[in-house]
Every structure is written in C-alpha cells, then in structure tokens.
Design goal:
The chain is α+β, with helices and mostly antiparallel strands. It folds into 3 domains: about 1-60, no CATH class; about 60-105 and about 225-380, Roll (T-fold); about 110-215, Orthogonal Bundle (T-fold). It is built from 12 helices and 18 strands. It has helices at about 10-35, 40-60, 85, 90, 95-110, 120-125, 135-150, 160-165, 180-190, 225-240, 335-350, 350-360, and strands at about 1-5, 60-70, 75-80, 130-135, 195-200, 210-215, 245-250, 255-260, 265-270, 280-285, 290-295, 300-305, 305-310, 315, 320, 325-330, 365-370, 375-380. The strands form 5 sheets. The protein has an 8-stranded antiparallel β-sheet with strand order 2-3-7-8-11-16-17-18. It has a 3-stranded antiparallel β-sheet with strand order 1-9-10, with no helix packed on it.
Length: about 375
C-alpha cells in the first residue's frame, strides 16, 4: 500500500508567498499612481487588503509530514492542520514526532520477536506451563489473533512461529536449503492456537490483570501479522487524543485514515501491483475514518534452486502457500483487525477466503494471478 500525493505544505507556503508579493507590488504601483492627496486613502486600502489576504492565508490548511523508523520498517504520518498551527512549537521542535516515536517504541517493546527483551520474546523463551503475566495491550492483540484463528480453523495461527522460523522468515538469516519433511513435522508439533489461552486475574482493589497459559511449554507465539496494525491504531489514538482530526498513518504499508486530506477530500491510497518490476498500482481506494492493510506473497520471499518461497505458511502442510492469490487487502475500522484478516485470507487464498469474508462482513480486495496478469476480485466493495 502507498499513499497517493496531495498538495503539500511547501507548495502551499510558496503559493501564499508569491500571492502576497504580487499584491504588495500592485499596491505599491497604486500608491505611486495616486497623487499626494489620495495616498493616505490608497495606503488604507492597501493595509486593509493585506490584512485580509494574510488572515485568509494563515487559516488555510497545510499537511505536516512526520516520518521515522519502527518495527524493522518505516512509518509516515500526514497531519492536516491550519497553516498557523504547522508553525507551532509542537511541529517546529518535533514534539509530536517524539510522542509518536515513544508510542511505537512501546508497542515494539511488547510484541517484537526480534527484541529478546520484549514481553513476547520473554514469554516465548519461558519453557513452562505456569501463567505468564502480560500487558493489557498484548492480551488485546493476542485475543484477536486467537479469535481469527478459530474462525479460520487454524489457517491463521499466532503460534505458527516455529514454522516461520524453520523456513527462515523470522529473525534468522535466509537458509541454504529447504527444511526436510522430518524438520517440518517436528515444527508442526509445536504449532496450535488451541495450545494457549488468556486468563484474567483481578483482586478487590487491583485492576484487571492478564496472563498466558501454555498447554505445551514449547509453543512459540508470533504476532508479526497483527502488531504493525495495532501500532497504527495506537498512533491514530494518540493523534485523536491530541485533538488532531484529519490525518493518515502509515506503518510499513498498513494505513489508517481520519477525516479528510488537505484538499478536503477522502484520502487516496494505492494497492501496489504484485509485479516486482512494475511500479504501477493495481487499484486505488478512497478512505475516510477507515483502515486498510495488505498481505502479499511478493512482499517477503526468497528463491532456492529456482523455486520461490513466500513468508505465508500453510499450517495444514507446514510449507509456504502455493495457490494463485498474490495479495489480499482488507478495509476495516481497526487496522489491527484489517492486518490480521489480510494475512488470514492470504493463507486461505481467494477460493476459500471469499466465502469466509462474506460470512464475516469483511471488505476485501483479492489480487489473483491469471497467467501473466492479475485479476481483481472484491468482496463487499462498491
């Protein structure tokens, strides 16, 4: 996914400056043309027009772009504000960026499988069936993942980590050979969303607390398919809390919109073509107060001996998917939900995924290979 461009802050600021300069020159010419007796009147007209134009200019909207690195990828936040606010200390001194960075760092510290000290990594490294305390946010994300795992009969599975790592799509380097049947079978023994459960604990005067219980101590949880979407939702909540009404948040291609863009229209985003040598868009989508997430077999893959292997694992076989669906984009109120469902439906493929999308009222765009072309198949889309 990528955001399509709208008029930016530099263009608007330059246009405003040019307009004021032209107005100044015209008024100076007017003053020179008037006689001495009429110059006071001309000067009054000049000041009145200048103040009016300046007042209109500073109340025009501007797009402030904030970007950085997070979760092994990049983020980009577009915030629409009146021009005079874009000059404020919050943007001039990067105060809003610091808040966004802190929020994304907090999410990463909870759910990263690359950080050995994250909450999730500590849970995975603990070989025990005893309850392991987790934060409310990790519990929220894991609960959604387990809910979708149940609805897909395990095609989507947050415990698929051992297979992901076996095929070297996790923190490890790419492999020199594909796993053997025996290695795949051993890894599959450690996979099963029904091997974990979330329990709630609370006292009379203490807030609700959460913990994870593993029925198999070797279970490994991977929330990579939903954590970015959750991070997007957290940044959106932060912006709303700080009273920003019009923005677009993009973390690694997962997006959430609020309000309108600088032109007063819905945000326009593009779904990339799966053709790696092609920078074209397969489809454009208008968003307002909605999120969209895309999962594609072309986004993370490698080739061995002329065979291409995708990062999306078929839990029934323990191997990367082989069907013809190239990507799935899901539109939802929550980017976390869209992110998880996009992965789930790509694991299933369009043939099995479309009936499930209909059943769950999802707004979905499938890109399916048809020879050298791609066919767009939509569910609940206008």
């Amino acid at each position: 996914m990528r955001q399509l461009l709208t008029p930016n802050s530099s263009f608007l600021t330059i246009s405003m400056a040019v307009s004021l300069l032209v107005l100044l020159l015209l008024c100076l010419f007017l003053l020179a043309a008037l006689g001495k007796k009429n110059r006071l009147f001309g000067f009054s007209v000049f000041v009145t027009i200048l103040v009016g134009v300046a007042a209109i200019s500073v109340t025009r909207n501007d797009t402030v772009l904030i970007h950085g690195e997070t979760m092994g990828t990049s983020y980009r936040v577009s915030v629409v504000v009146p021009i005079y606010i874009s000059w404020s200390r919050e943007f001039r001194d990067n105060l809003l960026k610091k808040k966004i960075d802190e929020e994304l760092t907090r999410v990463n510290a909870l759910m990263s499988t690359y950080d050995p000290n994250s909450e999730l990594s500590r849970l995975n490294s603990r070989q025990s069936e005893e309850p392991f305390p987790i934060s409310a946010d990790t519990a929220k994300v894991l609960r959604l993942a387990l809910e979708i795992a149940q609805k897909t009969n395990g095609a989507y599975d947050p415990t698929v980590g051992p297979l992901v790592n076996l095929w070297r799509f996790g923190p490890e380097d790419r492999p020199e050979k594909v796993p053997s049947d025996e290695e795949i079978a051993a890894a599959r023994q450690r996979v099963g969303w029904d091997k974990i459960k979330i329990i709630e604990q609370s006292g009379d005067d203490s807030p609700l607390q959460y913990a994870v219980v593993k029925s198999d101590p070797n279970v490994y949880i991977d929330l990579s398919s939903v954590a970015k979407g959750f991070g997007v939702d957290c940044v959106a909540a932060l912006l709303i809390q700080n009273r920003y009404k019009n923005f677009l948040v993009d973390v690694g291609g997962e997006l959430r919109s609020n309000g309108k863009n600088v032109a007063g229209k819905d945000w326009s985003v593009g779904i990339n073509s799966p053709v790696l040598t092609d920078n074209a868009l397969a489809k454009t989508v208008s968003l307002s107060d909605k999120a969209i997430a895309t999962s594609g077999d072309y986004l993370n893959f490698y080739e061995l001996d002329g065979v291409r292997y995708s990062h999306i694992i078929d839990t029934q076989t323990g191997r990367p998917i082989t069907h013809k669906t190239a990507s799935v984009s899901v539109i939802d109120d929550s980017c976390m939900t869209a992110d998880a469902w996009a992965t789930a439906l790509l694991a299933l493929g369009a043939e099995q995924g479309k009936p499930l999308a209909e059943e769950n009222g999802l707004h979905v765009i499938f890109l399916v290979r048809d020879g050298d072309e791609f066919v767009v198949e939509s569910v609940n889309q206008e």
